[in-house]
Amino acid sequence: MIGKKVREIRIRKGLTQAELAKKSKLTQRTIQRVELDKNTPRDYTLKQISTALGIDIAMFDKTLEKPKSLWASLLKLSWLVVLNIFLMTVIGYATLDSNANTNSRITAFLLSFSLPFLIASQTPKTTSWSRVLQYGSGFIFYLILIVVQHYNLLWSVGFKTGLIPCLILGLSTLYFVKYNGNRGTYSLN
């Protein structure tokens, strides 16, 4: 894929392989290998070629991404499941436990803001919806479960204990908080 792009841009600029090799200070054989996609070029090679062609090296970044293996995807999925179960357990225990008092409910309220805030600050490149679906799916599941299971007791179980406000606050924080890593500032979407 990289080779195809290099070839297209080289032809569009009206350069031969020899001219590009001379301009990029690489061998003609290296240019041929890159264009034929015989191997993945090193960063130095891509930098030299992009400089010679007058293009940004970031143009090649998307084509360099390797597809994730099944094992890596399963590992990430299992990590997200464990994290969501942990978040559900902490918020649920602090609000629904029979011994839950005002202090534990305040703790649940603070955790339902601070944990999603921490997640949002560590995932600045993730879109809001993606962040909510990945890290807030436990909250969504918990909300649905409370509404379906305790529909008649929604006020006493959901709102009076503080569970539903905590879950909504957590989801809102995941969706609305945006961290700008360049400036080190937070903003709302």
TrEMBL record:
<dbReference type="InterPro" id="IPR050807">
    <property type="entry name" value="TransReg_Diox_bact_type"/>
</dbReference>
<keyword id="KW-0238">DNA-binding</keyword>
<feature type="domain" description="HTH cro/C1-type">
    <location>
        <begin position="6"/>
        <end position="60"/>
    </location>
</feature>
<dbReference type="GO" id="GO:0003677">
    <property type="term" value="F:DNA binding"/>
</dbReference>
<feature type="transmembrane region" description="Helical">
    <location>
        <begin position="77"/>
        <end position="96"/>
    </location>
</feature>
<feature type="transmembrane region" description="Helical">
    <location>
        <begin position="102"/>
        <end position="120"/>
    </location>
</feature>
<protein>
    <recommendedName>
        <fullName>HTH cro/C1-type domain-containing protein</fullName>
    </recommendedName>
</protein>
<dbReference type="GO" id="GO:0003700">
    <property type="term" value="F:DNA-binding transcription factor activity"/>
</dbReference>
<feature type="transmembrane region" description="Helical">
    <location>
        <begin position="132"/>
        <end position="151"/>
    </location>
</feature>
<dbReference type="GO" id="GO:0005829">
    <property type="term" value="C:cytosol"/>
</dbReference>
<keyword id="KW-0812">Transmembrane</keyword>
<dbReference type="InterPro" id="IPR001387">
    <property type="entry name" value="Cro/C1-type_HTH"/>
</dbReference>
<keyword id="KW-1133">Transmembrane helix</keyword>
<keyword id="KW-0472">Membrane</keyword>
<dbReference type="Pfam" id="PF01381">
    <property type="entry name" value="HTH_3"/>
</dbReference>
<dbReference type="InterPro" id="IPR010982">
    <property type="entry name" value="Lambda_DNA-bd_dom_sf"/>
</dbReference>
<feature type="transmembrane region" description="Helical">
    <location>
        <begin position="157"/>
        <end position="177"/>
    </location>
</feature>
